[in-house]
Aminotransferase
Amino acid sequence: MMKPLISKKYAAHGSGGLAAGADLAKAHPDVVDFTLGDPDLTTPAAIIDAAAADARAGHTHYTDSRGDGELIAAIVDFQKEEYGVELSPENVFVTTSACHGMWLVLETMLDEGDEVMIIEPYFAPYADQVKMAGGVPVFIPTDPDEGFRPNIDVIREKVTEKTKALIVNTPNNPSGLCLKKEELEAFGRLAEEKDFYLIADDIYTAFSYDGPFVPMASLDPCKDRTITLRSFSKNFAMTGWRIGYILGEKNFIAAAKSVNENNVYTAPAISQRAALYALAHREDLQPPVVEEFKTRTFHAYERLTRLKNIRIPEPTGTFYLFVDIRPTGLSEDEVWQKLFDEAHVLTVKGSAFGESGRGFLRLAVTVGVDAIDKAFDRIEKMEIFQ
């Protein structure tokens, strides 16, 4: 009998809930697909042109394993100008996307059996990322009827001697929730009291509609215990460039560098040059991207408010809408299937983001207003929403 080819830690893993609709999207020629958080906008032409020019000028080789020196310097300047956060180049590590960054942070941070707290609902890959790094995910339930706001006492009850970190994602995927400064500071005080770290997954920073985004790393109770993940994917419509970065304490960044040298060594040079241009010209390039998705998100929200048997709060962040379909009296599986069969509309089931999300559906508003209207013109005819 042959030994298993696939390791035990990967053998049981299949596609997650976020990928479940990929094949179904091809089942009908008129499907409106709200599943993927991939902006349908092409990266701004100026970014593409600048990256192409840099490639022709010779930026086609490995960069330093921590990242392109000019990009790292620009990130340091950006953090100070935008948030008042003082960093040195040794606090920065450029990654091949924020997902790669999360893997790298967890791989560098966790010993076998360390626990990582994850607030529900959460970006679906977190749990497996923790497990693959040898850690144990510990889920923090939240109350959908309280807007999924995390309760600090519930978090405190989940802390053990094995707790290593708490992942915090705001604005949140999938709920769109934006945490308040006071809530983030409470996390920092608890982390200091109980001796664990904070992993800030700061991906949708430009999509905070109620007020300017405030990073945990800028707050006194949090700054000494926060590792930050950032990305260019959403803020600049650059998902395919696969570029992000980690901000953290110098020794941690040095350790992450050593881990990554055995993985991909360094992020793609051309993508780093694109990120450099995007960051330098953010005041011109970012607002049109943000305004387009804010317009779409609020348009889809307005269409949702016309439906019976659903609940949806006004958007405060991201370009996701997390729709409460419990008033239909049907399960999320049944409503999800009816939307696909009767309206040819694809969404993601809320339970893909943890048990607190069960009974919800997530819509990623990454299609244009015409497609949004096409979808909701069909949805409005469905009996369960009349």
About this structure: The mean pLDDT is 95. The longest strand covers residues 163-168. Residues 282-304 form the longest helix (23 residues).
